Input
Amino acid sequence: MSLLAVGTLAFDSIETPFEKRTDVLGGSATHFAYAARLFGPVELVGVIGTDFPEETLKAMSRAGIGVRGVETAPGKTFRWAGRYEADWNTRHTLDTQLNVFEHFDPKVPTAQRGARFVFLANAQPEVQMRALAQMRAPELVVCDTMNLWIDIKLGALEELLRKVHGLVVNEEEARMLSGRRNLFQAAKVLLAKGPRFVILKKGEHGAFLLGRDVRFALPSYPVEDVVDPTGAGDSFAGGFMGHLAAVGEVTPAALRRAMLCGTATASFCVEGFSTEGLERTDRKGLDARVAELASLVTP
Ligand code: AMP
Output
């Protein structure tokens, strides 16, 4: 087992310009896992409440996601509600209920502490750090975060940044965290805080990888019918880390290829609500999109 993720499993309520869905399966770790499983085994560490259907956990397991590190706590599962503007790139968080996640103390099962690749999906920075502290000697640790944690947990987040190799953030988060408006200046400031590389997600405009020894930019895959962008960032990370864990190396070439894999994977996520788009996808469909994306950017 080489890839492990810690983060939220959630019920999301989502309003798009076209549709509204209540209490669908979501969570940063959930989206990540549904993406990463397309590349190989992935193990989850997280918490659910007693309201989380047993059948959903079984379905995750059948999809190839290891759920031994998912614990059930008394109370309700994490809930998040959001609304998208017509341009899709603007999202408003309407509600966040931490519920059982508020006092979550992650416990990485002993058998999984040797994972070589670790993704600290969006969660309280303290939870991310406590999970990381249990890992033996991971080769690549990448973390995500969100405006909420930048607002209320900045000190802990800065401490976390000193311990990770990679950071995945969107434009708004990069600006908040660095205090710079220009994204390249922002990336420089973020790199000085610890990570070896930063990935700046620009929604439908694609993503930049800015590191000490590698720079790469990619547009998003051209999706004609966006249904729900929730989880696109986590799915990108799932494809990105899934590829690196599968090839077992973190060279500049592998990082570039991982950007293609992450971008293609995220494009499936936005084609359905919740994890539906990713669940409909198989390796063949994914490989075809990776190849198409590569040809799109090759002269
Ligand atoms: P993304 O669209 O990639 O930013 O991820 C959205 C997912 O993150 C949703 O399924 C939410 O359940 C989850 N989420 C939203 N807010 C938070 C938060 N503050 N901490 C952890 N997970 C969150």
